[in-house]
Amino acid sequence: MKSFLSALWGLVFSLSAAQADEVPVNEFGLYHQDWFLESFLDMSEDFQGARDAGKRFVIIWEQKGCPYCKDLHAKTLSQDNIKTYMQDNFVVLQMNIWGDREVTDFDGTEMTEKDFAAKNGIAFTPTVQFLHEDIKGKDGLAREAARLPGFFRPFHFKAMLNYVHEKMYETDKPFQRYIVELAQSGQKP
What is the pLDDT of residues 149-160, one digit of tens each? Predict the structure, then answer.
């Protein structure tokens, strides 16, 4: 009887772990969150929509089958504190680094997602771009306040969300110093 109960509990825990790693995939084959922005990919409109909502505009670059993108969704974006903080403070647009959908850049130029990725210097996935609150008079990468290149675990990801939301990038403290001080103080972002 003990071995049966042990086996049953083992099955329950393994199914729970498997479900935790399941991440929905959208029609383009990208792992997806249901709270991401549905967009016509007009960057000026999406940016202004975020501003009108009192939020920051973020672009998450991914690609089909990317294991680190899956980790971003399963291990980081699935955390309630991160999801809630992002929904409260950011408008998140997901884009495909190799996508063929038509994008209208901030200057009105039309191009594919992959060309827009190249224009923004996106070389791998996932990459998270945080745009400045005000991009008037800024062109290209100057519109970017911060960037997370690659998969970051929840502590580091949430720290970057705080770093951007608190506009720490406007100080002389780089993100690396900010996160070291945060970790050394024992604080959680």
Answer: 999 999 999 999
